[in-house]
Amino acid sequence: MTMSVPQASQSRAQFLREQLNHHAHLYYVLDQPALPDIEYDRLFQELQALEAQYPELRTADSPTQRVLGKVLEGFTPVEHAVPMLSIRTETDTQASGAENFDARVRRELELTADAPLVEYACELKFDGLAMNLRYEHGVLVQAATRGDGETGEDVTQNIRTIKQIPLRLLNMTTPVLEVRGEVYMRRDEFERLNERQRELIAAGHKNEKTFVNPRNAAAGAVRQLDPAIASKRPLSFFAYGLGEVQGWNVPLTHSGILDALKEMGMPVCAERTVVKGAAGLIAFHQRVGQHRDALPFDIDGVVYKVNSLQLQKRLGFVTREPRWAVAHKYPAQEQITRVLAIDIQVGRTGKLTPVAKLEPVFVGGTTVSNATLHNEDETRRKDVRIGDQVIVRRAGDVIPEVVSVVPDHSVTARERSASFDLFKQLNGRCPVCGGDIVREEGEADWRCTGGLFCPAQRKQAILHFAGRRAMDVEGLGEKLVDQLVDSELVKTLADLYQLDVATLMQLERMGEKSAQNLVDGLNASKKTTLARFLYALGIRQVGEATAKDLASHFGSLDRIMQVSVDELLQVSDVGPIVASSIHRFFAQAHNLEVLQALRDAGIHWDEQVGAKETSAQLLAGQVFVLTGTLPNLSRDDATALIEAAGGKVTGSVSKKTNYVVAGAEAGSKLQKAQELGVAVIDEAGLKDLLG
Ligand code: IVH
User: Fold this and answer.
1) Contacts of 351 (CB under 8 A, 6+ apart)
2) ∠ Cα 253 255 259 (to 5°)
3) What CATH fold (topology level) applies to the domain 334-426?
4) Which positions ≥6 away from 454 have C-beta within 8 Å?
């Protein structure tokens, strides 16, 4: 090292290299990040700046000198025919970020101020992992990760499980066409996966873990050596470019390439556009920013690409980044903050959820001061304690959550507050009603046993009862339920039907009109169906489908109240856990009192004694799956018709499915039916079956 570099800068650079390499390993290799992306980016930029100032500091092991990622054992290395590049990131999240890019492009192209605006293709920066799909003569022959950009890993068998990726291109048989794009996991799939993982962990599967974000879940799935497991982690894909091409006349613009890929059956995100000049870029950045939360998947920003391939060629590359593209970021969805306290919330079913009270922090577009810790085991596994610095994440409309603790090595283990113990913290009592709390074996959650005596559960239970798919009471919202329970006007579900206009008008901000509307809504809800009523009761484990099964199997409430666990087990899809939950509900005296009071209040439905046996059950025992849009029947109508005839409607196609009813734009379910050889009918076919 030459004398010109100050000692302080030398040691700072070394520290930064070590930190960055360490976190890159945690992140890319182990899928266990311990630092928010923004913090990583900040350290990275600091190192870049130091190296720019003192080029001697740019050592071979500097993370700025390579594209991260490492070939793991167990996958065959694949050398990319055309290197997989990265994109320069513009971290200035303001409009100026876009203006700077446009100005740079114009400068490099030596355009004068009066030369026409440059045309750009704008798209999303998907937050997943890059994939190269190689099609030979139109057939998918290989899928490879980016790896270090030169050499990736062969993950073909896992990628083949992604239903969105065509195994054969449409009308395209050129010798070689490599499609590049992003493999990602949708947010809803991510939530579902983590929910499943939490259940597995609760059931004692020690080797399972939850994933910190959709990208890590996707990366884990792609690198999963067992494709059977990989296929249970539902992944998606968007194409955004090309690799090697042989024998195909490539379109002249980037947008033209994406259009062509779409024609070939590749998933191409619809959220893209072609604009002119910086103003167009800014408008796109703002528009996407406004509905970023509503997207079904995470994005990392947007990408601008010079649209003309000829201009792209003129602009060329700097090291591994093209001069013709840039990623323009948004404010981060993860931030660091401090845990001030851990509270415990009581849900509708009495579930006790630990919630971290945080030093307020701006993340994902809003100020967050509460974040869920999910349950006791998660809290302990992440080892979150009061006073800790934590990473919080808020993406889309998902509830903010604590991702992990930022280790603070200046604090010794002894100095940290006690590790989380839910029972101890609550002294074994529900924080709302003081009832006993229990955690049954194999369950992830502690629960309050107070039932409807617990005001917290009562509020949630009333909201559920009044819900659209339950009793469908118009005009009974969250605020009103809070008022009704807090004022003790409503202690049980049946009290709802005792409310009159005069009483309601005593509540704050309640006018005569709203009061009358609620009373009308309550009266209108009295005529219902047995299935809706059963569902509305909020019996644990009894969702809409089970409520329908119970109603059609037993036909009357009295019957359901009397039957044994064994008899309940006769109902399709009712297993021991569900059966015992139902049985327990009807064994409790206070529940029976509420039921009687509800009936006394005038709630009624048409009972069908012995429904199963007597009515014309043309479709008894037949399992249906609906997909696509039917010409005349809505999904609810079709379901009602099938169920009225004794059939059952489920959400996914399996060997047990008897018929798939397919309408316009039927998707993967139709494909699955064809694979499994399940009969596929249309609306007319369904009507024939129904006689
Ligand atoms: S183009 C020449 N387009 O971002 C540029 N990349 O830093 C090659 N990414 O890991 C990439 N969305 O997987 C491109 N619309 C998009 C993208 C995108 C996400 C990822 C890509 C790569 C990283 C590049």
Assistant:
1) 445, 446, 447
2) 115
3) OB fold (Dihydrolipoamide Acetyltransferase, E2P) (2.40.50)
4) 346, 350, 430, 432, 433, 435, 448
Contact at 8 Å (CB) between 681 and 661? yes
* Residue of 374, 319, 365 whose CA lies nearest to 342: 374
Query: Ligand 1: does its nearest atom lie under 6 Å from the Cβ of 90?
Result: no
CA atoms within 13 A on the CB side of 372: 11
Nearest by Cα to 137 from 180, 166, 172? 172
Ligand 1, atom 9, lies closest to the CA of 125
Q: Is 79 exposed, middle or buried (0-12, 13-18, 19+ CB in 10 A)?
A: exposed
Asked if residue 123 has its Cβ within 6 Å of ligand 1, the reply is yes
Architecture per CATH, 449-614? Orthogonal Bundle (1.10)
315 lines ligand 1 (CB under 6 A): no
For 392, the token pair is: 């919080």
Give me ligand 1 centre to Cα 327, in Å. Answer: 8
Q: How far is the CA of 243 from the centre of ligand 1 (A)?
A: 12
Asked whether 86 lines ligand 1 (CB < 6 A), one says yes
Structure tokens at 149: 């950009």
**What percentage of the chain's residues is helix, strand, coil (to nearest 5)?**
40, 20, 40
Tell which one of 303, 309, 315, 320 to mutate to probe ligand 1, the residue whose CB is within 8 A of the most ligand atoms: 303
Q: What Å distances lie between residue 354 and 344, 351, 426, 445, 663, CA to CA?
A: 4, 10, 11, 10, 44
User: Of 124, 56, 415, 412, which is closest to residue 291 (Cα–Cα)?
Assistant: 124
SS3 518: helix
130 within ligand 1 shell (Cβ under 6 A): yes
| DSSP calls for 503-517 | HHTTSTT--HHHHHH
The CA distance from 213 to 199, in Å, is 18
Task: Tell me if residue 125 is catalytic.
Answer: yes
pLDDT tens, residue by residue, 291-317: 887 899 989 899 999 999 999 999 999
For residue 30, the CA-to-ligand 1 centroid distance in Å is: 22
Detail the DSSP E strand segments found in 185-324: 236-246, 273-276, 299-306, 317-318, 321-322
**pLDDT tops 90 at residue 336:** yes
pLDDT tens string 617-645:
678 778 899 988 888 888 888 998 888 78
Dist. CA 449–CA 72, nearest whole Å: 49
* CATH class for the region spanning 88-329: alpha beta
Q: Please report the atom of ligand 1 found closest to the CA of residue 146.
A: 10
Residue 127 CA: which ligand 1 atom is closest? 19
Domain 623-689: which topology? Rossmann fold (3.40.50)
CB 302, CB 5: distance < 8 Å? no
Report pLDDT for 71: 43
Distance, in Å, from the CA atom of 89 to the CA atom of 105, rounded to the nearest integer, reads 15
Residues 386/14, Cβ–Cβ less than 8 Å:
no
CATH number of the 7-65 domain: 1.10.287.610
H-run or E-run covering 197? helix 187-202
For residues 603 and 533, is the Cβ–Cβ distance under 8 A? yes
Higher pLDDT, 385 or 332: 385
Ligand 1 centroid to residue 86 C-alpha, Å = 6
In order, the DSSP letters of 558-598 are: HHHHH--HHHHTTSTT--HHHHHHHHHHHH-HHHHHHHHHH
Q: Output the CA 125–ligand 1 centroid distance in Å.
A: 6
Q: Is the pLDDT of residue 584 over 50?
A: yes
The two tokens of residue 306 are 């010079």
What are the sequence ranges of the domains in the chain?
7-65, 88-329, 334-426, 449-614, 623-689
